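Ops channel
N.P.: pipeline sanity check, posting one input/output pair.
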């Protein structure tokens, strides 16, 4: 039901990264002493943040950016099945495996990755990945 306000929230589907499996090894490295936080007083902040980590919403509804690597496949019954893949060709192959037949339609999710998330793709986008380039070897 609408509120009648000038600006209203719109509930929509979003993509999230489950952050707790990523936080666990980082927490362990500091707790074991393998990684030191300097100054030490910031350990409390670090532990508070990672012990209470929330899942990260990585989808944005923008016209520019790295597209979310998810396609929706339909075998003709109107039910859209999400398929996560590296490329459209991979999505078609995975969809065929999931549906038991070639998809009648295949559409990529229109959302793009959150700016912070997509900034992690910069080295791959600019240094030749997936090829083993000299620049990639030098910097990563």
């Amino acid at each position: 039901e609408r509120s009648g306000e000038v600006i209203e929230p719109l509930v929509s589907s979003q993509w999230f990264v489950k952050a707790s499996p990523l936080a666990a090894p980082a927490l362990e490295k500091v707790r074991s002493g393998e990684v030191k936080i300097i100054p030490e007083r910031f350990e409390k902040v670090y532990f508070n943040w990672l012990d209470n980590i929330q899942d990260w919403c990585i989808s944005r509804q923008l016209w520019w950016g790295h597209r979310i690597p998810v396609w929706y496949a339909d075998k003709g019954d109107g039910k859209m099945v999400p398929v996560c893949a590296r490329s459209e060709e991979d999505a078609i192959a995975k969809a065929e495996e999931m549906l038991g037949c070639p998809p009648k339609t295949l559409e990529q999710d229109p959302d793009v990755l959150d700016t912070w998330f997509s900034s992690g793709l910069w080295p791959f986008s600019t240094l030749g990945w997936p090829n083993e380039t000299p620049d990639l070897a030098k910097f990563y």
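N.P.: looks fine end to end. The first strand starts at residue 16 and ends at 17.
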